Structure formats: C-alpha cells, structure tokens
Amino acid sequence: MKSANRETYNAIIKQKYLYFIYFAIAVFLAFLTDIAVGSSSLSIYDVFSTIISPHLNDPNTNVIVWDFRLPKALMAIIVGASLAVAGAEVQTILDNPLASPYTLGISAAAGFGAALAVVFGLGTIPFAGSILVSVNAFIFSFFSFSIICLIAKIKNASKEIMILTGVSLLFLFQALISLLEYLATDEQLQKIVFWLFGSFENSSWSTVLICFVIFIIIVPLLAIDSWKLTALKLGDEKAKSLGINVEKLRLKVIICVTILTASAVCFVGTIGFVGLVPPHIARILTGEDQRYFIPLSALLGSLFLSLASIGGKIVCHKGVFPIGIATSMIGVPFFLSLLLMKRSESF
Asked: By CB distance 3.0 to 4.6 Å, which of 191, 240, 290, 335 could disulfide with 226?
C-alpha cells in the first residue's frame, strides 16, 4: 500500500516537473518569436543567430535585434514573471483567487504617481529628469503599501482588513487619476492614457537590468517561506498552530509584492490580468504547493505577456499597440470561461 502511494506521489511530482520543461520551452519560443515579429520581419533563425553570433550577421539586423527588440522582449519576460508571482502571492495571503496587485491599490497608486508627474511635473525625488514618471510611479506604489501596512498593523494584518484597505485605495487613486485627466491638456492626457494602457516602448537595457535584479532578489525571499505560505492556505488558525507568525508573514509578502509590482509597472505602465490569469492556470496544474506554484506562475506570466506582445504587434504591425489592451483581450475570455466552469462554486 505504501509502495503504491509512493509511486503515485512520484508520478505527480514528475508531471509537475514536466510542466516546467514544457512551459520553459514555450517561453523560449515565444521570446524568439516576439523578437522576430515587427515592422521589419525576421526569421527565428536570424534572431537566434544574431543573439548567439552578432559579429557574423548584418549590422542592420544587429541594431534591430540588440538595440530595439531584445530589451522589449526581455522586459516582457521579466515583467510577466514579476506580476504573475506578485498576483500568486497576493491570492495566497488573502485567500482570494480574484485578488491581484490591483486589489491592493498598488497599480492604481503607480498610475496616479505617473499622471501627477505628467500633468504637474511633480516628483517625489527632485531632479529625476527624464525618469520622473517612473520614479513617481515607484514611490507612490510604496505610499499605497505604507497605508496598507499601517492599517494592517493596527488590525493585526487580517486578510479582510487588507482587502478592504486595498480596494479603498484602488478607488481613491482611480478617482485622483480621473481628476488629473480632467485637468490635463490634450498632450498631457495623451501621455497619461498611453502610460496607463501599458507599453514596452520605453524599455532599455538599464530598465531590464533593474527589473531583473529586483526579481532575482525578491523571488528567493518568497521561496524561502514556501512551506509557510502553503500552510497558510489551511487557514490562519491552523497556520498559527504550526508555529507560523501569520501577521509577520503577510507583511513580508506584501513588501515583496509591492517591490515586484512597483518595479514592473513604473517602467511599462499598468498591465491588467497578468497577476490573475497565470496564477490560476498554475494552481490548476500544480495545486497550492508553493514550491511548484511560484516558479510555474513565473513561467506562465512570462509566456502570457510574451504572447500578448506578439499579438499586439500582429494586430498593429506598423504602430504601437497598447499591451494592456492585448492582455485584457486574452484575460477577459479566460475569466468568463472560468466563471462558467465554476458557476456552482463560490469564490
């Protein structure tokens, strides 16, 4: 009997590792395709050879790949992984499958910071220059986080308090964004709307490096507490009975989620559904075990945003298609199908 159970367990674990392999290959292929697709179409072979041996290829192709498309494609990979992991952990600590960084008002706060910089040129850090919008977006994300932490500390970091505080901040910052849009000139309004839609057009090697460094620092910090986060899904009382400081764990995760989200949206704008769709798919495939849930969410987030980037380029071949619209076009049908499949269940 024990042998049979062990074989079943090993088969399940093997299947989970196979998912990692399948989706890692899919991400790599999507990454190459994202670079290949554009106003000047390239073959995947040309892209691959240019990346591996740039000195053996046409200089124009090198410029297109290395200076323009590669940073954007890498940004899609990193931002997708960051937002998906952030969404997965928000859903875990709040025990709500519909939660995301948007639920906590983090993305809306970033949008307000960016809009404030566009309309009034007001920055929280003086002399930020050309990066004023990104700096403001990052700082206001942490302003939202500070309010959540303050209220959560007073109310012992319960998930209900966090959700209510986050939703309140979400509506507050959305109202403030609407006010700034009303006060903005036509040119300023165009900049605000374009930023809120999301775009990889401002991606560069420096922004890729910043997001990558933050990602490889934050994700291991979450992975260290993987068993605690898995136990948290059993409920607060059971988690506490296992010796877990639930309030401290929630605050730590909120800090990590805020950093991941802020580093992503401050450079590419607010992008919806990346923190919702990939974690749902990962949960279906691996369950709630955070050892597998976190990395698979990251892979699926990268794949999701890369496919959205490819789709946007195909739809608007000669121009810039807002990435937030592309993710919404994919995300909305997914959630409608999810609601239809789970119509008898309660979220």
From this structure: 290
Note whether 142 and 258 are within 8 A (CB).
yes
Whether residue 228 contacts residue 249, with contact meaning beta carbons closer than 8 Å, is answered with yes
CATH fold for domain 2-341: ABC transporter involved in vitamin B12 uptake, BtuC (1.10.3470)
Per the model's pLDDT, the better-predicted residue between 174 and 38 turns out to be 174
CB 280 within 8 A of CB 149: no
Amino acid sitting at position 97: P
Half-sphere exposure of 168 (CA within 13 A, CB side): 10
List the domain boundaries for the chain.
Answer: 2-341
The residue ranking higher by pLDDT, 133 or 220, is: 220
Closest CA to 162 of 265, 259, 251, 231: 251
Contact 31, 73 (CB under 8 A): yes
Query: If DSSP states are collapsed to H, E and C, what string results for the chain?
Result: CHHHHHHHHHHHHHHHHHHHHHHHHHHHHHHHHHHHCCCCCCCHHHHHHHHHCHHHCCHHHHHHHHHHHHHHHHHHHHHHHHHHHHHHHHHHHHCCCCCCCCCCCHHHHHHHHHHHHHHHCCCCCCCCHHHHHHHHHHHHHHHHHHHHHHHHHHCCCCHHHHHHHHHHHHHHHHHHHHHHHHHCCHHHHHHHHHHHHCCCCCCCHHHHHHHHHHHHHHHHHHHHCHHHHHHHCCCHHHHHHCCCCHHHHHHHHHHHHHHHHHHHHHHHCCCCCCCCHHHHHHHHHHCCCHHHHHHHHHHHHHHHHHHHHHHHHHHCCCCCCCHHHHHHHHHHHHHHHHHHHCCCCCC
The two structure tokens encoding residue 63:
């410029």
Is-contact 273 87, C-beta < 8 A? no
Per residue in 280-338, pLDDT tens?
999 989 988 999 999 999 999 999 999 999 988 888 766 678 888 889 888 888 777 76
Q: What is the pTM of this model?
A: 0.90
115, 177, 255 from 169: Cα distances, Å:
16, 12, 16
Task: With beta carbons less than 8 A apart as the criterion, state whether 264 and 107 touch.
Answer: no
